[in-house]
UniProtKB/TrEMBL annotation, chain A:
Protein's UniProt name: cysteine synthase
Keyword Lyase part of the UniProt annotation: yes
Origin: domain of life: Bacteria
The Tryptophan synthase beta chain-like PALP domain, residue ranges: 59-365
Pfam families registered for this protein in UniProt: PALP
InterPro entries tied to this protein: AKP_thiolase_beta, Cys_Synth/Cystath_Beta-Synth, TrpB-like_PALP, TrpB-like_PALP_sf
Keywords, alphabetical: Lyase, Pyridoxal phosphate
Requisite cofactors: pyridoxal 5'-phosphate
Gene3D superfamilies assigned: 3.40.50.1100
From TrEMBL, chain B:
Name of this protein: 2-amino-4-ketopentanoate thiolase
Highest classification ranks of the organism: Bacteria, Pseudomonadati, Pseudomonadota, Gammaproteobacteria, Oceanospirillales
Organism: Billgrantia kenyensis
Matching InterPro entries: OrtA
One Pfam family this sequence matches: OrtA
Amino acid sequence: MKQVDYQSVMARRNDTMLTALGLDYSPFLENPIAFDYEGLMGMVEYDIDTIRRIQADSGVGNTALIELKQITELGRLLAPAGKGARIFVKDEAANPSGSYKARRASLSLHHAQKSGFRGAVAATSGNYGAAVASQAAMRNLDCVVVQEVFDSLGIGQPEILEKGRACEIYGAEVLQLSVGPELFYQFLRVLEETGYFNASLYTPYAIAGVEPLGVEIVEQMTAATGRAPDVVMCTHAGGGNLTGTARGLIKAGTTETQVVAASVDLTGLHMASDRDFNRKHFTTGHTGFGIPFAGWPDRTDVPRNAARALRYMDRYMLLKQGEVFYMTEILARLEGLERGPAGNVALAGALALAQEMDENQTIVVQETEYAGAGKQPSAQLSFARSNGIDIRRGDSEEEVPGESVVIPDHPSRLRVRDVDLDRVRKSLIRKAASLAPEGRVTREEDILFLAEETRTDTDFVSQVLESDAGAP
Amino acid sequence: MQSHCGQWVQIRTTILPPDARAEAIPAETREVPLEMRIKGWQVSPETATTGDTVEVRSTLGRHYRGQLEAINPPYGHDFGAAIPELLEAGEQARAILSQGKEAT
């Protein structure tokens, strides 16, 4: 009988994960740094048209593209003359489980079913749980979702409670945990006990499943405006949303479209803190995931993460919590669309960015998510207020995560705040260098790989490596 | 509160006590156990009160043991109350648009 204590289960983690994936990662683990990323994605044996057919079969994709005419107008009123790009949104809330995550789940569960798994397990506190549960339900597969839900007092914030309820309604067994990264241990135990598929967010299937979103954007924008968009804005956390969408844009033949990431700035709040847990008013799309995952993708439940956002990111913007709540209100008031918070991070970014762009340019915000009890700003902010968070109108710059939420006192408060991507790139290169067996990166292959990983060139990578080598 | 066999109940178990928690987590998290809550159909004992150890069968037919916490607990999350700061912001945005349209 297998030992199931923490150390024993964690020691078996690699075997457990691999058995539960039905994929052979060994060719991609031969070197600590470089691996064939396109080869990894190539494990998905379907072309993009086949993926679209598989997804259409499960009711996923082909969501509406909606032009946000009044928000565009608002941007133009705030912008200098001649500025103010047209803003569009992909209404991903129309997917079966209410978010674009259905795209990631559908291809994964198609693969799981084809490989003979009788069920799937997902470790997620977000919309992905409902997506896996929904896709499992329509395939008559079992689904277990392991969620981080409560603090040590048993209190969960409304948005997370809603995500748990949604999993239950689709028939999943939902394991609701208190705060802590050791959730992974419980996840591994369920994989061992059930022999079910590891429906990780980060397999090649989960990422390839998003690619049709990028293709649809190009097709629909070409129909609506005659060409591909100038900018696609993605709410960014683990990187799969941006990676899959950007790859889809490329597959649709666009090379000029800029891919811009947007995250809620939660600087100062610790992701594994029992105290900070309920002081984060966004449960995803924030810097607690966005920055570490951009700077080092291989921190997940698969040996090699197929979501590698830094490869595709042209810019990375930060928004304040109050700005995203504001934008959620504006989307309802000005466009008649009540939608959940996730996509509205990118939408808030789009309003700011549009003002830098010409009137004849376009931005696509590539997702919305469903709204409902627990998801609304009214639910999240009522909860925050009852926990002593100071909610007021004013200058969004004054917001302090965990202490205040400042609703902008004017739309002109929303502005572009760029993350210094070179810093993130350097951090990735340094982390990679620390994995080199000889203590430094010498192989040509690794330098080339790091240039691709960071969307730079070999000179940039070499300079970072040399400056570190010369440091005391 | 007394629960009976066959009722949909919520139980709570400790996965890791504080002294078994991972080292690389904040101190305030290490001070408390890692707990799990799960809902299922009560299998045994015949009757139980809060805090008693009970066995449940999950919706997938898997069995768990833990301390009884509640009988069919309500989800509890709701829409909250309207946020006046956001209502004001919405009115203001409409006003800005209307004034802008009048000016052009």
